[in-house]
Amino acid sequence: MKIIVDENIEFGAEAFQQFGEVKLSHGRKITNEMLKDVEILVVRSITNVNEELLKNTAVKFVGTTTIGTDHLDKDYMESKKIQYASATGCNSFAVAEYVLTSIVKIAHENNFDLTNKTFGVIGYGNIGKKITKFAEAVGLKTYVNDPPLQREGYEYDFCSLDEALNSDIITFHVPLNKDGVDKTFHLIDEQRINELKPGTILINTSRGGVVDNIALLKRLQNKNDLIVVLDVWENEPLINKELLKKVYLGTPHIAGYSYEGKVNGTIMIYNSLCNFLNKEKIWNPVLINVDSNKITPDNTQSIT
Q1: What confidence score (pLDDT) does residue 68 get?
Q2: 236 an active-site residue?
Q3: Could you check whether 2-90+258-286 and 92-250 share the same CATH topology?
Q4: Which residue has the higher pLDDT, 292 or 46?
Q5: Domain segments of the chain: what residues?
Q6: Is the C-alpha dihedral spanning 45, 51, 57, 59 positive or negative?
Q7: What is the Cα–Cα distance from 169 to 147, expressed in whole angstroms?
Q8: Percent of the residues in the chain that have a pLDDT greater than 70, as a whole number
Q9: Count of beta carbons in the 10 Å neighbourhood of residue 257
């Protein structure tokens, strides 16, 4: 059995060699021709897995070591009976840490007390739950919006989207749905961006398309009265450089890019593939232990 794995997936070769011959490739350079006789494909979010990539190939299983799945054409894969799996929640702790530390950084640099602020959480999945718990621990009053969970009868005091968007701090943790009852593409469109109160802290670590980047740039150019943290952008990697200049903190989609998160993603897809192939789970990664006593100001670099 031939397997192609994104070369930047942690333990990629080691984890999947149990199932056959593993070839590592850059995620942006995986082509249809490469997959002609490949049965297993393991990717990250930079690889668009669609008909163009999969047509007339031997691929039977696609795994993405990421939480998001908007780079997977699920309808096409289902029509061709190609099994797919994602790593839901693999890096949720890292993303939650990113959001919380961003908030603390902003509070410190702007000299305000978090206990006097309200916090809107859009999306109450793995990350949203952790974020809410962290926020409440530091004294933030939280307002949570999640229509799908609310419809399912999940027991929580949810609020409307408009209520959450009226908060002092807003964070997004939703998938990118381009249509349907729970459409999230441009969930925060020009109208909603213009309705945000001055001084709002807006944090997006979910998917770039959740926030209309052009409308956001217009608001920042015209008023410059929002504090914006973006880890995700529309049209990655060809992002709007003018928007990058205007945000308070901009990062290249790395909020969940922790060592533990990457390893968790590999483990989850490994387990899914074992289940798909009905194979025994024999791989156990040996993780690198970091001695915190060896991390000192002398051997680290500041990026501020």
Answers
A1: 85
A2: yes
A3: yes
A4: 46
A5: 2-90+258-286, 92-250
A6: positive
A7: 20
A8: 94
A9: 15
pLDDT digits (tens, 9 = 90+) for 103-115: 999 999 999 999 8
Residue in 253, 36, 70, 38 with CA at minimum distance from that of residue 24: 38
Can 151 be counted among the known catalytic residues? Answer: no
pTM: 0.82
Active site residue 253: yes
pLDDT of 236 strictly over 80: yes
Q: Specify the pLDDT at position 303.
A: 39
Of the candidate CATH numbers 3.40.50.720, 3.60.21.10, 3.40.50.1820, 3.30.420.40, the domain formed by 2-90+258-286 belongs to: 3.40.50.720
Label residue 296 by pLDDT band (50, 70, 90).
Answer: low
CATH tag, 92-250: 3.40.50.720
Structure tokens at 14: 């080691």
Q: Which residue is catalytic, options 186, 207, 219, 234?
A: 207
E-only strand ranges, the chain: 2-6, 21-25, 40-43, 61-64, 83-86, 118-122, 141-145, 169-172, 201-204, 227-230, 249-250
User: Which stretch of DSSP H or E encloses residue 275?
Assistant: helix 259-277
